[in-house]
């Protein structure tokens, strides 16, 4: 669509056209070969590398605007691209190339007494709408995953990353054309008008099948409240690290510091530390000191305050809080039962970890904790599709419908039944 044509169209007209174009492109993708999709992804990776200087310059513009708006440090970190991060995006695309194509895979196969031969086979979902903020890498991750899984995608990034997202999308548009695929397989909503989000949530006249939000609580809450199509999302990332009485102090310290401080602004960052009272005398003070030495503020219960005078008082609200910053809540618990109960009451169903040398206790924790991701002796920051060997992820889902945990290739497919007969008719 030319710029002149865009100017002559209303926002509603433009959004409706995006939906129609996406549906048409999705139909084409159902017959695209794995080789053709992989070729497009490799070309997109090549384009990202070739256009790196321009993308980083555009990201610099986004960073300047964000800094002028006094956004927080964690948010700036999410917006920022550098050579290493851009190369990581390109490598993520190449990792997706190496993954098996789920489309067309047989999930089950059987025959029935009538002689019918039945196969349950994976198929694309159709058209995915991705609404995201502060993360320019989502432009590429979402585009690549949707494409490999045979879906068309409509991307709508927030205004604070519009320059970066526009150029990254351009890489995909050129790559799709080179690979002989419809450029409309990957489209971007290139307007800061928030009304566009509402139109996507309405489904664009039935042309969007699923919405995936990536961003803060405000965005995700709006999507979950207003969407008229299914949503893959999590509202909060209130993640816990539980240090069991049989935990190695060195391991607990190392895992905790990574879980909290590696990147404080991501949804897999630990927000609450639970320490077993049985090991509090030996573990609580060193763990708090390690956090504070890493410039992490600590809000804790009475035991935590006694262990270190620098700990401020934790309120009831702190147990629910997703800080997304260098702040953590600390509480002592009387064993496994209280830890599990605390997580059930205050957690968001995202990611929890237990640190313990007792394998049976770990298995009990893994079985009892009802979160999308539950870990033993590992940082909660491994809650990521790329780290799970899924190439990348389009988001983390905490619901129980269709997708849960990292949403990767398989989660972006559904299934249908292919039934083969030899002239059978059903008797009266």
Write the layout of secondary structure elements.
Layout: H1 3-7, H2 11-29, H3 34-50, H4 52-68, H5 73-79, H6 83-98, E1 106-111, E2 117-124, E3 127-132, H7 137-148, E4 152-157, H8 162-178, E5 186-188, H9 195-201, E6 210-214, H10 217-226, E7 239-243, H11 249-261, E8 270-276, H12 280-293, E9 297-300, H13 302-307, E10 312-313, E11 327-333, H14 336-346, E12 351-355, H15 359-368, E13 373-376, E14 396-397, E15 405-406, E16 413-420
Parallel strand pairs: 3-4, 3-6, 4-5, 7-8, 7-12, 8-11, 9-10, 9-11, 12-13
Antiparallel strand pairs: 1-2, 2-16, 14-15
How would you sum up this structure in a few lines?
With 428 residues, the protein is of the alpha/beta class.
The overall strand count is: 16
Q: Estimate the strand proportion.
A: 15-25%
**Please, what is the oligomeric state?**
single chain
Total of DSSP H or I helical runs spanning 4+ residues = 15
């Amino acid at each position: 669509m030319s710029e002149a044509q865009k100017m002559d169209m209303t926002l509603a007209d433009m959004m409706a056209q995006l939906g129609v174009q996406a549906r048409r492109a999705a139909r084409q993708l159902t017959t695209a070969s794995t080789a053709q999709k992989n070729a497009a992804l490799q070309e997109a990776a090549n384009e990202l590398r070739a256009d790196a200087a321009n993308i980083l310059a555009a990201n610099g513009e986004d960073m300047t605007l964000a800094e002028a708006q006094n956004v927080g440090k964690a948010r700036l970190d999410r917006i920022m691209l550098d050579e290493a991060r851009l190369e990581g995006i390109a490598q993520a695309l190449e990792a997706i190339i190496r993954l098996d194509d789920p489309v067309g895979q047989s999930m089950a196969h059987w025959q029935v007494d009538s002689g019918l031969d039945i196969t349950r086979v994976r198929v694309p979902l159709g058209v995915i709408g991705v609404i995201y903020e502060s993360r320019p890498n989502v432009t590429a991750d979402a585009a690549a995953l949707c494409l490999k899984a045979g879906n068309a995608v409509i991307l709508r990034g927030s205004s604070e990353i519009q320059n970066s997202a526009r150029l990254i999308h351009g890489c995909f548009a050129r790559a799709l054309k080179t690979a002989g695929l419809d450029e409309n397989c990957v489209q971007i909503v290139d307007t800061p008008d928030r009304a566009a989000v509402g139109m996507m949530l309405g489904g664009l006249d039935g042309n969007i099948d699923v919405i995936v939000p990536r961003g803060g609580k405000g965005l995700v809450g709006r999507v979950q409240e207003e969407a008229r199509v299914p949503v893959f999302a999590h509202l909060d990332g209130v993640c816990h690290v539980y240090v069991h009485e049989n935990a190695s102090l060195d391991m607990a310290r190392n895992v905790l510091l990574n879980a909290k401080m590696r990147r404080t602004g991501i949804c897999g960052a630990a927000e609450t530390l639970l320490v077993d009272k049985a090991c509090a005398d030996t573990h609580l003070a060193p763990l708090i000191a390690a956090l504070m030495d890493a410039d992490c503020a600590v809000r804790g219960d009475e035991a935590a305050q006694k262990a270190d005078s620098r700990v401020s008082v934790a309120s009831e609200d702190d147990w629910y809080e997703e800080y997304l910053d260098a702040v953590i809540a600390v509480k002592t618990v009387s064993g496994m039962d209280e830890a599990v109960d605390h997580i059930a009451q205050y957690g968001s169903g995202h990611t929890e970890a237990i640190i313990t040398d007792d394998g049976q206790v770990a298995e009990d924790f893994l079985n009892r904790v009802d979160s999308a991701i539950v870990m033993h002796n590992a940082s909660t920051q491994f809650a990521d599709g790329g780290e799970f060997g899924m190439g990348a992820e389009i988001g983390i889902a905490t619901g129980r419908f269709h997708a849960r945990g990292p949403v990767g290739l398989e989660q972006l497919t559904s299934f249908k039944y292919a039934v083969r007969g030899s002239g059978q008719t059903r008797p009266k």
